[in-house]
Write a structure and sequence with these properties.
single chain; two-stranded antiparallel sheet
Length: 142
Amino acid sequence: MFKEFKAFIARGNVLDLAVAVIIGAAFGKIVTSLTDDVIMPVIGKIFGGLDFSSYFVALGKVPPGLAGSSDYAALKKAGVPLFGYGAFVTAAVNFLIVAFIIFLIVRAVNRLMPKAPEVIAEPVEPTDVTLLREIRDELRRR
């Protein structure tokens, strides 16, 4: 069993996948920083707020110590039910950025890869027709 596991791990696909996961995690942090630190503050400024990710609506009673607080993380930690639409918008923008960048990468790779020559396949005769043709030819010879 150990040999099978070693062969499985040594295959190129598994190693490629491991590298992709590690690079993807690092890329995710870059995109998160781009979204949180560059894009969302601009969008927040357009919509009249500085931190768009902290937009929320409290759906439950706020504890007396946090009354009037606009700290999303503190209210969430205190167990207040929140409708965090700002956090959702931030995550949606984050997803769109990642999806668009992946689209650009795949498109660039597809353009760089040589296209396989188109092979025009000759029509393949069904086996029953071939068999009938052989029978016909054999009957003619007799």
